[in-house]
Amino acid sequence: MKKEDMDFYGLYADRLEEIQTLMITEIKNILDSISTDSETALAEHIKCRIKGSESLKEKLSRSGLSETPECALKNLSDIVGARVVTHFVGDIYTILELIEKSDKWRVKKIKDYIANAKPNGYRSLHVILTVPFGIGEIDEINTEIQMRTIAMDCWASLEHQLKYKKTIRNTEPIVSELKRCADEMASTDLSMQTIGMQMIRIWLFFSTAQMRSLRKKYTSHYVPDILWLCSDDNNSFFIPVKADCQTI
């Protein structure tokens, strides 16, 4: 935490850092409970931050609230925030189920902007949590976890940059184009999810001892509707083809 932020939060600063550590640790534990293998990990990366004092004051001002740490802690939900970026849409809901079961916090609210995208095309899943605080008269505070795919995160980062370029006057065409891009990326996300699920099924199918034996006997095997699996006895690789059955 920067010095100016430490000064603003005052006696609450240390507790906020403890909550930041708690959140990042618990999220990592949740992800590790699913897989510790980087090849099968659900999250591409995770971040956690305490909101900077200047950004916090601006948000309080926009909301017509007093620019004090006490007011922020009582009224805002993203002073401590984490972001989990996943490979697939389905991974987000898998992680959500485990977040809901954790005893480190209480889930207060879920805002599903994936199922119900914002008008500008923004997609993400926001989980508002209530965590114990216990400093002064503040018993608990709200924090937030945002979850999105790599594609959603890419779009949100670009949209954020463009939104703050004050020199652009006529933003209507840009807003419209961003919305179109968001919809296309959402479609791509679903396609990647389908491909990922198909590859998991194929892996499960060919991972049994019997199938390993068959792979050594045959040089190719047709997998309906998705791809060919080719084997050279030791190594397997995927070749996308049309859905009709062909011979390699």
Q: What does it look like?
A:
With 248 residues, this protein is α+β, with helices and mostly antiparallel strands. It has two domains: 3-163, Beta Polymerase, domain 2 (2-Layer Sandwich); 208-248, no CATH class. Helices cover 47% and strands 24% of the residues. It is built from eight helices and eight strands; from the N terminus they run ααβααβαβββαααβββ. The chain has a five-stranded mixed β-sheet with strand order 1-2-5-4-3, sandwiched between helices. The protein has a three-stranded antiparallel β-sheet with strand order 6-7-8, with no helix packed on it. The longest helix has 35 residues, at 172-206. It starts with a helix and ends in an 8-residue tail after the last strand.
- Assembly classification: single chain
Q: What is the fold named in CATH at topology level of the largest domain?
A: Beta Polymerase, domain 2
- Looking at the structure, what is the overall shape? globular
Largest sheet: 5 strands, mixed
In spatial order, strands of the major sheet run: 1-2-5-4-3
How many beta-strand elements? Answer: 8
- Give the distance, in angstroms, between the N- and C-terminal Cα atoms: 59 Å
- Determine Rg (CA atoms, Å): 23 Å
Secondary-structure-based class equals alpha+beta
CATH architecture of the largest domain: 2-Layer Sandwich
Q: Quick check: average pLDDT?
A: 80
CATH superfamily of the largest domain: Beta Polymerase, domain 2
Number of domains: 2
Q: What is the class of the largest domain in the CATH system?
A: Alpha Beta
List the total number of helices. 8
Low-confidence stretches: 217-248
| Beta-strand content bin | 15-25%
